[in-house]
Amino acid sequence: MTCSKAFCPGRNAKRSNKFGQNGAAIARGGSVQFRQPLTTRGSSDTPAAAMSEAIPTRLLKLDEEGLLQAVEVLGHGGLVAFPTETVYGLGADATNDRAVARIFEAKGRPHFNPLICHYPDAEAITSSVLVDRRAEALAAAFWPGALTLVLPRSAACPVSLLCSAGMSSLAVRVPALQSARDLLSAFGRPIAAPSANRSGKVSPTRAEHVVQELAGRIELLLDGGPCSVGVESTVLSLLDERPLLLRPGGITAEAIAEVLGEMPRSPDKETAITAPGMLTSHYAPDSHLRLNVTALEPGEALLSFGPASIQGAVIEMNLSPSGDLQEAAARLFAALRRLDRSGAKAIAVMPIPEEGLGRAINDRLRRAAAPRSSLPSDLG
Ligand code: TXA
Ligand code: MG
Fold first, then answer.
1. 256 CB under 6 A from ligand 1?
2. Model confidence band, residue 331 (pLDDT cutoffs 50, 70, 90)
């Protein structure tokens, strides 16, 4: 994406102290650009070859101009970190598969955890999820606010399957911070946003925390000051008859019970299988999967990657003919679903490089291929 002069400081821009760790440069217009040195990017085990060019990260105030720029960046599939009342979120166009795949890459997430989709108001969620009476009551009581509801995806849900980690549910939230809702209204599409931290780190509650974690990995950071709540939203699943509290947060279980007339369950050993980050909550195909395949058996479907193929498949889906891992991640769940529906004897999967987003893709493939009785329980 090209940006206007006012927001792209040139070579003469000065050094900043406030956000200086990543080589910040301040332009006269008040925007700040970061270029994080490549050597500090990625986890220590990420091969240098897997790292792409550092992205110049602009820092803008969360004002009208900042919102306009954010809408433009999001519209081009870019990443924008923005504040909510709970924590800063790492936002992308939730309807754009590749943009959502970039979130996982920027966070350095080793596997695909489902993401929360943000909406400007309760009405806006109805195109994405099925809303029952309980959801309506909770939305009326707590939205906008620090409550995330996990609901069934609607048939015409426009949101990328990556946001759902391949499942048939979607987490939705209407944030309380007015400027976050202004951004959502101005963008006009749902924004997928996990907390704007690197994988394994604590959630950021100030713009400078985001700079420390994500400078050089995102296009834009909107600084709206410190977050007022400071802990993440409560995540409540309404997929079953009894509500399930997946994550305690800004709205208490007691407050939820007052609206619903019953206390939500907490995940126990039995219910834990539906909790976030756990294997069976993610897409598990009915078909048997064979991984790292170089030769096909009769009757198999092929999930290929890269320019080469293997002859003899009953059906083939290529995750990325050019070998682009971002594109492959974006297509993974939809391709698996398609092949699963094909009626093929099994799904044979060609080798995917174990680097960058390839690690997340392989993680999901390994879990999808594991015998159902020996599912590892925790994905972290
Ligand atoms: O306050 C918040 O919720 C912040 C702000 C930015 O909105 N977001 C946030 O996102 O904390 P994240 O990705 O860091 O945490 C989302 C949690 C994860 O534990 C994830 O597994 C769970 O919500 N989650 C998301 N979608 C889910 C789904 N469909 N089913 C079950 N759990 C889901
Ligand atoms: Mg988080």
1. no
2. confident
